[in-house]
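Input.
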Amino acid sequence: MASRLILLCHGMTAAQRGARFADDEPLEDSAAAAAAALRDRLPAFQRCWASPALRTRETARLLGIDATLEPALADNDYGRWKGRSMAEIADKEPKSIAAWLADPSARPHGGESIRDLTTRVGAWLDGQHAAGGRSLAITHQAVIRAAIVHVLGAPAPAFWRVDVEPLSLTELSSDGRRWNLRQRSVAD
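Output.
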């Protein structure tokens, strides 16, 4: 049975704008207007999941969507780095940040490694093959990056080579056996 899964990145937050590791922060005020512009362009879907985070729940609310909370779509756990900026950590813990960026299995912050995140997201995706129809998942940049790495069978370091913008859409399609990254045309 064919399935389509649209991964929607939540709206902009102050942490994203300030290059800080996410905590459970709300959306910026500007996200409301951006979500309103996206609302009418979203393709139809039969079911919607969202990460339990405040920023994904607010994105769903702004889009007028009643989403089922899905823990597997939660952002990467940044441990003690939550709320801190990359610059601050690079200044105070240069070896830790270097290890984290170089080794997908590293977790110097005490949270989840990139490899662990990719495994978690991949397991959730693999469980969705038979869902059928079109689904929407409102989640985080890191989760979408991990999903792309999993779908492409790319090595874990490829995670750092994927950029995901706030309120961007990434579409996956499945024939019931595997996921493919799908590029949408303007006519879709």
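DSSP finds seven helices and six strands in the chain.
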